Amino acid sequence: MDRKVIIFSAPSGAGKSTIVGHLLQKFPFLEFSVSATSRSPRGREQNGKEYYFYTKEEFEDKIRRGEFVEYEQVYEGMYYGTLRSEVERIWNKGNVIVFDIDVKGGVNLKRLYGDHALSLFIQPPSVEVLRERLICRGTDLPEAIEKRCLKAVEELTYADKFDRIIVNDDLEKAFCDAEKAILQFCGPQAATGLSVSL
Ligand code: ADP
Ligand code: 5GP
């Protein structure tokens, strides 16, 4: 079985979840890797759906036991990580894994999986646009939005470490660019759900 992974990284607010959500609906052979985190659930988030939620102590215990393929403290004091069990679960079903992961984790996973991985960086048109999108999304307090925008400046410098950059200005174009990249990478496996020509 050819074990493939697709890695999506971007500054928060760039449109990664929107694009990943579209692709998961479009291509049934893709499956989202649910990460573990020590942050608390936001809004309607459910354990096992958006994330596996753990306390900081539980997360650190899993680190000691070597249960993660990678993990990062993406925000101060908050862990996020990819569980080995999640990767195996998806590959055992014969699906292609989709990761939504921070830029450092994205670079690490690309290094780990090499030619089995396609790494995509979702780039916002500017930090100003990013700020507007985060305000419109309405899930973060003004202080958190400023923190995310500050962090975005550094995260944008990682773009050229990825296989491809997808600029998310016009959303339909970004969908189309991401679909094409996936079809090229996955080849015949992608025959179902094909709606763009290469
Ligand atoms: P991320 O997952 O990268 O944090 P989201 O997918 O949540 O980002 O997108 C942030 C906000 O921007 C959401 O409210 C989303 O609807 C909106 N958005 C995404 N892409 C675009 C776009 N191309 N143009 C305008 N708004 C967008
Ligand atoms: P949020 O708190 O907004 O859900 O996510 C914050 C950041 O953590 C996002 O950039 C997201 O991509 C990243 N992230 C989510 N899961 C993982 C993971 O398993 N590993 C790493 N390194 N980053 C992750």
Provide an overview of this structure:
This protein is α/β, with parallel strands linked by helices and 198 residues long. The chain has one domain (5-186): Rossmann fold (3-Layer(aba) Sandwich), CATH 3.40.50. It contains seven helices and nine strands; from the N terminus they run βαβββαββαβαβααβα. A five-stranded parallel beta sheet has the order 2-7-1-8-9, sandwiched between helices. The longest helix is centred in the last third of the chain and has 16 residues, at 171-186. The radius of gyration is 16 Å and the shape is globular. The two termini are 25 Å apart. It binds adenosine-5'-diphosphate and guanosine-5'-monophosphate (5GP).
Offer a quick outline of the entry.
With about 200 residues, the chain is an alpha/beta fold. It has helices at about 15-25, 55-65, 85-90, 105-115, 125-135, 140-155, 170-185, and strands at about 5-10, 30, 35, 50-55, 70-75, 80-85, 95-100, 115-125, 165. It is globular, with a radius of gyration of 16 Å.
What would you report as the Rg, rounded to the nearest angstrom?
16 Å
The helix-and-strand class reads alpha/beta
What is the chain-wise order of helices and strands? EHEEEHEEHEHEHHEH
CATH fold naming: Rossmann fold
CATH class: Alpha Beta
What is the topology, as strand order, of the major beta sheet?
2-7-1-8-9
Hetero groups: adenosine-5'-diphosphate, guanosine-5'-monophosphate
Number of strand segments: 9
